[in-house]
Amino acid sequence: MLRFRNLASGSTGNATLIEGGSDGLGGGGPRRRLLMDCGLGIRILEGKLAAAGITPAQLDAVFITHEHSDHIGCVQKLVLRHRVPVWMSQGTHEALGAPDFDGLLRIARDGEAIDLGAFEARPFTVPHDAREPLHLRCSDGATHVGLLTDLGHASEHVLEQLRDCHALLLESNHDPDMLQASAYPAFLKRRISGRFGHLPNQVSADILRTVRHTGLRRVVAAHLSAQNNHPDLARAALADALGWPLEAIDVAHPREGTGWIDVG
After folding, report:
1. Dist. CA 18–CA 144, nearest whole Å
2. 230 pLDDT higher than 50
């Protein structure tokens, strides 16, 4: 069985912990853990991992989705300090200035699974204004989780990765009316609302309408803008798309994230 816990989600920093395997969780193989993004300071991140019941040394891998600062954060310090392999695309590594990870760097590619033993993480490309962004679908063979926090629209390739997932962490970044009425400069409004920016609530809802199925059990709205969205708006849009009650939609807090979410 898989479970995941968002540690933070928003422009101030992003990190999500995915865990699978036995040791009380059920499923095959020893427990394994993947940290997707670490866009926080090292002390804050270590504190959040401790609150989740693990130490950085218990991470089996770190996966970086793209080079934006709210996703990379303390990656080099974390990886080198605790000797954890780090996965990212070639484009992301180059966009970061090709930092030296002392032999711990692994290059991730669209469709090439990362085998963690108890589960696999399969990267897929997304339309976002970064060099070579990748997000993840994680599976232990029986349970599937899609994690998607930064993109401007859902390509058919993206939708294919989200089909048949039992849980989704899905960007629901902004309300278009709030964005246009905000004090953001015009260029930033264009960037956020563009096809390589971030998903508005209703487009996230449309994605759910496309990929929903009877096995979908949990949905977490993620990467909400603090200035241009409100949890109630995101929750209402996603709940309506699924025909679920409002309380069935989880919303990741920008700094506190979520508790553990069991899938299975």
Report:
1. 11
2. yes
